[in-house]
Amino acid sequence: MRGITLYQPWASFMAMGLKKIETRHWSTSYRGPLLIHAAKRKPSKDDLRYYRDLLFDFGHPFGDIWNLPYGSLICKLNLIDCQQIGHDNGPYHGKLEFHLGNYDHGRWTWITDNLKTFDPIPYRGSQGFFNVPDELLIDGEGWR
Question: Phi/psi zone of residue 84: left (φ > 0), alpha (ψ -120 to 50 degrees), beta?
Fold first, then answer.
């Protein structure tokens, strides 16, 4: 299965269902299942405070933002569409989603649905798409 690495706290925002649109400077024709990998790199405490306060302002207390998973696969979702950002196709400024991505004109939105979370699985990610062996993810009962 394909995976992609996101920095924290954005990876956890995806896993929590708060962020359903990933913004990138590149397009993809890929559609289908996609694993979200939380990068090993840790954000600054100031960045974490900013996003903790932002989520609180939107009515979504984050909980323990100081104890995020790093260097792990944390959820699976479906990539269902990819659209270039113009003047009329993105979340409006007042929505939380707008504040969780870079909606500059000309960038790309990767639209997702069908989120499934699981306990973090330590794994080494990489830039761009990478492949994750299915046997790492599935046990006799389904997702870990």
Answer: beta
